[in-house]
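FAQ
Q: What does a multi-component entry look like?
A: The components come first, one per line:
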Amino acid sequence: MLSLETKRVIIAVLSFFLLSALLIVGYIEGKKHIPGSKASIIVSEENEKCVECHSQQSNARTAVQQWQESEHAIKGVGCIECHGAEKDDIDAFEHYQSTIATIVSPKDCSRCHKKEFAEFQRSHHAQAGKILGSLDNVLAEIVEGSMEHNNAVAVSGCKQCHGSVVDFIRDDAGDIKKDRNGIPMIDPETWPNTGIGRVNPDGSLGSCAACHNRHYFSVAQAREPDDCGKCHLGPDHPQYEIYRESKHGINFTAHKDEMNLERRPWIVGEDYIAAPTCATCHMSATPNQAVTHDVGERISWTLRPPVSEKVDAKALKAGKDVKKWEERRQDMQDVCFQCHSKQYVQNFYKQYDDVVHLYNDKFGIPSTTLMKKLKSVGLITADVAFDDKIEWTYFYLWHHEGRRARMGASMMGPDYTQWHGMYEVADRFYAEFVPEIKELIAEGRAHGKVSAAQAVQKLLDEILNSSLHKWYLGKMDPAEKKSREEAAAQFKKRYAGD
Amino acid sequence: MSENKSNDLNRRGFFQRLMMSLGLTASYGTIGAYAFQFLIPKKAAKKFRKVLVASLPDLPVGGSKTFHDLRGREMVLVNTFDGLRAISTSCTHLGCKAYYEPDNDRFFCPCHNGVFDLNGNVVAGPPPSPLEGYEVQVDENDNVFVLMQETA
Amino acid sequence: MKKLNSFKTWFAGSFPIDLDILKEISSEPIPNHLKKWWFAIGGTPLYLFVVQALTGIILTFYYVPDPAEAFQSVAYITTHVRFGWFLRSIHKWSAHLMVLTLFLHMMRVYFTASYRKPREINWMIGVAILLTTLGFGFTGYSLIYEQISYWAAVVGTNIAAATPFIGDILSGFIRGGDEVSDNTLTRFFVLHIGVLPTAMVMLLGLHVVQIRLHGVTKLRFDKDNSHSVELSLRVSAPVSPTRAHGGDTSTEADEEEKVKEESFPFYPDHFYMELIVGLTLTFILTILALIYPAHMGDPANPLVTPEHIKPEWFFYATFRWLKLTSLGVGVMGTMVFLGILLFWPFIDRVLVRKFPGREISFWLGVVGFFVFLTFTIWEALV
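Then the predicted structure of the entire assembly, as tokens:
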């Protein structure tokens, strides 16, 4: 039996243990995070009327529910703040004692988001709808498409990214027709459409919902590369695929959960460090720059045309005062510098510039010059596009492969630069374009257009005999030829055992 | 010698009893303190949220708009000569509704004739304190926000 | 000094307690075999019951016994209230430990045959305490209104309904209707915080009084516990040694000596022991609350029956038994078992008379224990 003394000591020791355990309990209580409760939403009475009905109706139910989870709802921005219209608006209608319009344009959003509206309106994105008359437009409406079928290709294809010109169904007098509920009827050729260059009834350009999907209007969703990927993908401009191939994209996929996509502000290097997204480089804030909705502000090259030039070149030629490409490049490099060293970035830009210059000099300029010549001498029709095979060949060369190669270099996608890019450019050029030129020359001669044929032949010879192309004629520099054969032998020797 | 020993024993015994009592008091006392904290919730710091209430063009000087705050209480947004005010209509006397009277530039409570000015301050009558008010902010796009107190 | 004295006199007038008697009672001699730990097991469920009462009262400050709010109020306690998670976890673990130590105590009492004369009634009070404790466990578990608790209540009340003869009345009383409804939760709440605690306190009081009146049995059990040391409260008539032992001719002086060497004082020795046990239990409960705190399951959904409905572990054996036979037979069997348990002192008497010296009760107890253990583990694994 333990003595009293021992018992007292045991009690003291046990109390100490108990106290320690309780102190741990206290520590845990202090660290406890109380889960946030659902924020209450307060909106005006007019809005509550909308919600009451539209949360019951099947089609609008989800829209209302999405809105209820959005930042707008928390801030008291409801239906009327966006869908509300003036009585004299072209698309306004009365609906249960409220004056509203179906389509919410960027101008409507600018009630609160003025800065974003201004930046966006002046950006290239807002101009996306103005592709009437472009070659792509010709393809969509004439070559592939049919106006007899309500221009289906353009409506469901091109314009869903580029944006339609929203118009209404009108009667013979030209007035807008309304359905039996009094709601203006919108021309199905023009809507639904959230193309980023949509031309709205109120004259504003674009659609904020192109990137900020309704009715969540989530900034985290807009920052996802998937969002840009709705339009910026495919054989002619695979920016999305290039990004996913690149190390930036790989890091993003691996560390997406640590990217804090919903944060405000969202500054690269501070709020996230794992990788840049499309938004990071082209729009989002850095410690030195605010976020911008003008996506051209950091672009130096335009990689779109058959021959790339600096993005300010055309505007400067037209005498407009625009941000210089050097300044834009500096702003872009400011993003890079958040993670990379000066040498790293500058070396990369050298690599990138070299690819663009190479494409231009070796394939872009020669092929374009040849095409111009063919048209001017009449060996192919100049007034009808895509009726000559070589026009397709040329189109693929600059519009598809040529863009892929340049964009692959711009965003560190080596496979797109090489195998999906320059390799296919070279293939297209040497295996199709040049032989087709030769065919046209022969055809021209056969049909009596001798001087035309000779002019083209002269140009072709000039091009093929240049240092870039003379290998094709077997005229490689003997010294270079020798050193290449030696290198090949070395290569064979090194890997002979494999 | 034995006396010293017994003195030591006494001291040791005293020390033991002391440690024992201290230990018991400290450990069970801590549990008691936790139970006390359990029963009495901590006063949480007030959090405010910016909520859109009106558009300035819709609210000329002298105009007003009724709205509800996050706790469901009725409030009035008034564009006075001295600026925008967001004032609660819950009279601080006994809780009746104090009506905004634009013609008299005041809030009037009919229950016991309490009168408040447009800042919510008591002018006449039994109310002991001013009507509760919230901060109002206007952004560069003329959107009027009220900083409302969050519920729990 | 004078003021203190007048205060003392005034106080003593209100509570005329004789301090000398108080000292004598608190220095009550305790039989030496109580120094053995397994004899202290009876005090453990008592301490845990006090813990349950205190934490239970505190939890009731936030709990709402309405089906629409019950779950949310428990979640609120667990996540929002300061130390809510801690006190709720203590309540939960103390419940498990209380049932466990109660089982252990019951086994100790059984295997020392302490139910024999004159302690038959005390045994039956003990069985009543056991049933009350299981009632606490059943009602308390359902108050959380999670999926498992709701459906456990449904199954439990359905089993009650299968009781022969009184099934409908019994289930109607427990449920407050033909089905588990809003009434059920209210009833469980009233039972858990009102009826059962009152019954428990009364039963415990009787239980302790009986122990004080009879004294504690010795380790080796005799036919009639004639060698137990007798202690008496002032309230009971002093039992003379000759009358109790049936013919013992030792003198009173001898008896006193016997008491002295076979016992030790309650205060401070046993009191300290109780403190040690109490501290250890509180420590264990705190550790359990830290490592395995109480969580929230899915809220009760009367429209969705979960795949597996299981009661608490102390009902596993019964549950397993019920699944082995038809419901009617199963419930009958359980009733019969409870009857045997309740009247065991008398059945034991018959057994001792029929098979003297064979210690049948002991072996039956061993068998019973292993059957219980097997059924419990079986249900746990399935």
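Q: Is there any commentary attached?
A: Sometimes. For this entry: Chain C touches chain B through twelve residues (CB under 8 Å).
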